[in-house]
Amino acid sequence: MKRNVLVIHTGGTISMMEDKDTGSVIPGRENPLSVQTSMVANLADVRVIEAFHLPSPHITTEHMHEIKRLIEAEYKNQEFDGVVITHGTDTLEETAYFLDLTISLPVSIVVTGAMRSSNEIGADGLYNLISSVRVAADPLSKNKGVLVVLNDEIHSAKNVTKTHTSNVSTFQSPQYGPIGIVTKRGILFHHQPTSSESYKVCDITKKVTLIKAYAGMDSSLLGAIKDLKFDGVVIEALGQGNLPPEAVPGIIELLNSRIPVVLVSRCFNGIAQDVYGYEGGGKQLKEKGVIFSNGLNGQKARIKLMVALSQTDDFQEMERIFKN
Ligand SMILES: NC(=O)C[C@H](N)C(=O)O
After folding, report:
1. 3-state class of 304 per DSSP?
2. Pick from 145, 142, 141, 62: which is nearest to 103 by CA?
3. Could you report the predicted ipTM of this complex, rounded to two decimals?
4. Rounded Cα–Cα distance for residues 204 and 310 (Å)
5. Residue 316: band (very low, low, confident or very high) from pLDDT cuts 50, 70, 90
6. Ligand 1: which of 25, 53, 56, 164 to mutate, judged by most atoms within 8 Å of the beta carbon?
7. Cα–Cα distances in Å, from 299 out to 75, 136, 306?
8. pLDDT tens for each residue of 128-149
9. Could you identify the atom of ligand 1 that is nearest to the CA of residue 90?
10. Whose C-alpha lies nearest to ligand 1, atom 1?
11. What Cα–Cα distance (Å) separates residue 222 from each residue in 127, 184, 206?
12. b/e for 99-118, b at 16 or more Cβ within 10 A?
């Protein structure tokens, strides 16, 4: 029996065309993908909704929340087995992770995109859409959290990140690799996602910023964060989780003002740990109350802190949430 798959278009290069005169890639008047979606009709009973038609640098947490509400409302109206969200790749990992943290439906959820627009040579959009519908229609894809499918690979939303500005193999999971692959003969999962968690989020109202540490960083930028009335901050720290000593007073000022500071590493791979005991070292920062994230990158830790702040203002509870 054919499986039911809902496809939700949000925009991005997958639904854009290259203007042959100017060479620029722009959102077309109509979504070229809607026409092509008919080519997946043999794989499942596919229903298509165009939520919006945005380049993903224009996507905000409000849009992510709108996608969540749309999926939940559509499931209530007419159950489906899986849902595919087509999305620009620039912020795809944030939307995928937001949905991973906030949706708990018994369906497979797949997010996909493209690195080449629909009329470029070697366009990958239709191929990724077909792969994603196949994954969403496969019963094995359920209970694995939100999946990101591009270039024949299946990644978990928590671990995947965009690693290359233009290459079709851009989405990688540096810590763990893909959890599965799409082959001509079927979908193969070779391991389970590392963890699953879900939070009931009614609204995302808190303001969280993200900054990257650098050699010689002092406390001036951290002071500005407090003045700008942010509710939380994620800092991409040096190495295994350290900061220049001149930044420590700014961190302490934020913590004393009840503004949570979540720490990730600015390194491409590995996780932040409270190892070094010198001034500005991770051990000192953790003892002061900085929350160490469990392997997330900066942009995802920011999404998670926004979700955590919608659940609690207790630092110990936030620390527990970031241990997952
Ligand atoms: N490949 C893409 O989709 C990139 C595009 N700038 C976007 O994120 O909308």
Report:
1. helix
2. 145
3. 0.97
4. 6
5. very high
6. 56
7. 29, 26, 11
8. 999 999 999 999 999 999 999 9
9. 8
10. 115
11. 45, 51, 18
12. bbbbbebebbbbbbbbbbbb
